[in-house]
User: What shape does this take?
Amino acid sequence: MSDITARGAQITQARNLVTSIPGPRSQELMARKRQAVSSAIGTTMPVFAEAAFGGVIVDVDGNTLIDLGSGIAVTGVGNAAPRVVEAVTAQVNAFTHTCFMVTPYDGYVAVAEKLNALTPGTFEKRSALFNSGSEAVENAVKIARSYTKKNAVVAFDHAYHGRTNLTLALTAKNLPYKSGFGPFASEIYRAPMSYPFRDGLSGPEAAARAISQIEKQVGAENLAAIIIEPIQGEGGFIVPAEGFLNALVDWARANNVVFIADEVQTGFARTGAMFASEHFGIEPDLVVTAKGIAGGLPLSAVTGRAELMDAPQTGGLGGTYGGNPLACAAALATIETYEAEDLAAEARRIESQIREAFTAAQREDARIGDIRGHGAMMAIEFINPETGDPDGALTGKIAAAAHAQGVIVLTCGTYGNIIRFLPPLTIGADLLNEGLSVVLNALAAA
Ligand SMILES: *Cc1c(COP(=O)(O)O)cnc(C)c1O
Assistant: This one.
């Protein structure tokens, strides 16, 4: 192991607060941020990072925070994971960029081979690499349109697919994502999602409702693709009822409609399986990946059926940085880490810890409406016990109190009433339990 790795490993995996949160140096940096950075870029916590390793982030005031967000589901292998640091260090010393479209290199091909092997389905596959989740989603839509020679795309209620113009059209939520940024890309339609906690429908019932709406409002003859997160992320970690996704896949296949699974947040062992599609037994035509793919380096991919992926003209897909060599080296090391350390099993262990802690609390606290998710992608939905209405204000209070106690937690959901847990899969049981008890104490005090 290199010196760099050894330095990270010296960061103790425990919460330790030496100032109030935010400390004085973070406050100074926030003041500089306000002067230098667009105010449209928000921050969850006004705390600046100085170092991070595994499941903790050390801030510029010397506080050690528990990371239950993984930089939004990115550092699944833990921050500054040793294999990733080694691989990127070696690559940066070899070369930093050639552009794969100009002078290709083997790391890109090796990542494509890995993705083709790991994603669901034994059919022949190809991959293409990009930089961000949004960019990969856009390219999946381009591929589906090129293959089917149709235009329309269906996305779902509560969907989040990114912030570029086409992906904003696919994203459901107005504030903060869409407001003021239109007009959005055309030929995008929205269908109702399966949301068992709120709609009470079975999977087949919810699918019939969605398909009927699609047939009436769009028509299969115009529809290039259905895009869906197998478990929705920003929209509230909504797990569709059993059979919902299967019925949609069957309908899509029968109607020459490409089924795109957006696994940007759910991919790479996060949900206790390598891909969330596996929980439902579906084989998407195209799988979009990003976040957890490369241990924190920017990389994304579209992987899918060879005949679809080869449909666009040569030169039709690409980009200057897509599949950058550093990101590819990081991805290979990251995927090796998921496999060698069986991090999918760790995700399942994390799920049982979270379920245990919150199921016990729910018996005494009716404000905990729903506990759901798979693996290390778990959500707690907070409600007003009298009405069942979403309680976003309570959720905001809990998150703020946890932040003040040095625990990084994220909220999500169309109604902002969900605390979501996305810890690194390498987080130790004790560190996780400590973070969870801070959140539970914040709930009790709120
Ligand atoms: C984060 C996310 C995206 C967008 O990824 P970026 O890298 O932020 O562009 C798309 N889809 C899902 C499901 C996501 O969670």
